[in-house]
Amino acid sequence: MNVVGLLAFAVAGSLKASDAGLDLFGVAVLGVLTALGGGTVRDVLVNRPPASLTTTGDMTVALVGVALAVVLARRAPEHVRILDSRAFLVSDAVGLAAFAATGALVGTDAGLAPYGVVVLAAVTAVGGGSFADVFLGRVPVVLREDFYATPALLGGGVFLFARVVGAPTGVSAGACAGVVFALRMLALRREWRLPQV
Amino acid sequence: MNVVGLLAFAVAGSLKASDAGLDLFGVAVLGVLTALGGGTVRDVLVNRPPASLTTTGDMTVALVGVALAVVLARRAPEHVRILDSRAFLVSDAVGLAAFAATGALVGTDAGLAPYGVVVLAAVTAVGGGSFADVFLGRVPVVLREDFYATPALLGGGVFLFARVVGAPTGVSAGACAGVVFALRMLALRREWRLPQV
Amino acid sequence: MNVVGLLAFAVAGSLKASDAGLDLFGVAVLGVLTALGGGTVRDVLVNRPPASLTTTGDMTVALVGVALAVVLARRAPEHVRILDSRAFLVSDAVGLAAFAATGALVGTDAGLAPYGVVVLAAVTAVGGGSFADVFLGRVPVVLREDFYATPALLGGGVFLFARVVGAPTGVSAGACAGVVFALRMLALRREWRLPQV
Lengths: 197, 197, 197
Known about the structure:
Three copies of one chain form a homotrimer.
Chain A: H1 2-19, H2 24-45, H3 51-54, H4 57-75, H5 79-84, H6 86-109, H7 114-135, H8 141-144, H9 149-164, H10 169-190
Helix pairs in contact in A: 1-2, 1-4, 1-6, 2-4, 2-6, 2-7, 6-7, 6-9, 6-10, 7-9, 9-10
Pfam families (chains A, B, C): Gly_transporter
Membrane topology (chains A, B, C): Multi-pass membrane protein
Keywords (chains A, B, C): Cell membrane, Membrane, Transmembrane, Transmembrane helix
């Protein structure tokens, strides 16, 4: 699940950068940032060495995603079609779910307060894409309209609830990921939005 | 003082986000970020677990501020009036003073160099609002025109001076907060500005 | 070399801020951020106290750079001429080389994976300027068109290669810095660019 998510996020970030006219380095940076940025900030927030820099697996997958995006971008100039395809949206929701569960796990391991666990689930899941948006000079789309971060927050809550009622860590993480994925897919189908204030 | 500051900062961030057309999640994120962002970056810079994630008090106060802002935003569509009211400006200056003093204290505890203590006072005080501005795609207002960060920098200097002449920590922090608050209120009354370069 | 780089980066950041109409505080922040931001994020990523806050030397040099920029800005309103001068471009390339080598060294010391060492070389070298661009609401120029980050990435690779073939640390760092400087000067002369995607 993590690998699917890293690929989907890297493709999304790279295509966004390509649409914005960045050069090859910029496309690679935004792809990697979208895939690994949330997890890196998560690790920094709990004062541990970022897995993205101390291991090679995640970065390799992210770079494969960048390469895939470059190939796709040359073949299909209309990137919107790729990003709106069912295959992409499902992969992206899988990533959202996997990242939220990982964030909740890391937060619990680090001894954070309940709020902190929920924040870490959301930061891990939507942080990378948000930073990529900021680098492109845009207000992150998750803050404006997409029902995308809310599943991650609710998933963090589900994780906490499962832990409180005594579920083992693995089950709690699975319940979190399941809820995030289901809510995200429902939100896409029903076009859910949060109200403006 | 800290609670007043957290509330004022959360209200300011939330109203700014509401004016920018963000949805409920975005309004909550910007409110929380404005209130807790400076302290979180301060803690990350000195390699300690962020108080915003390991405790529940600060986040609760920030969320109360967000809720307050949502109520205010629905009642009074002209947010400028709220943010220009005397009650808000005084609360905001109290927060600026409290946050600068906390930043200077944490910097001293962490064994930073004098520059580092002053930087940490300023980052704690104006970091959250600046990051919120960046997320909204704006140049942080403290970098452009407001006489807002300068009191925090000078307050950090006062803290250092008090420590050098042998004042106890509590007195140094109080002197820092007092100077920041007085300078900020004076700056508002006299419309002080720094020159452009 | 480090001092030359800090000065060049601080001047570049300050002049950019002055052109954007920031006030004196904003000019100082962007100058300091450009000079010290990359190294600070590097240190945070490997969980060590940022040298920019625990020592006084680097910050002093950065502030001298800011003061220099203020004097230059008042004398020569056309900052482009300063930033396009040969003296500035060489100093800036020296900084790029020194910062990339320092980043690679810190990454190796911290036990990062090979990718991590290369990323840290690039973050140290181009991070400060990129954050300054983001604060000004711009897409970082290194992501768009300049052949500026690529030398730092390649220099990180040279450092790794030198270590693998058994070169002592000092020699590896020197080789890294030499390659970065040479590639950057060549890129300027030949107007190299990366392709868009």
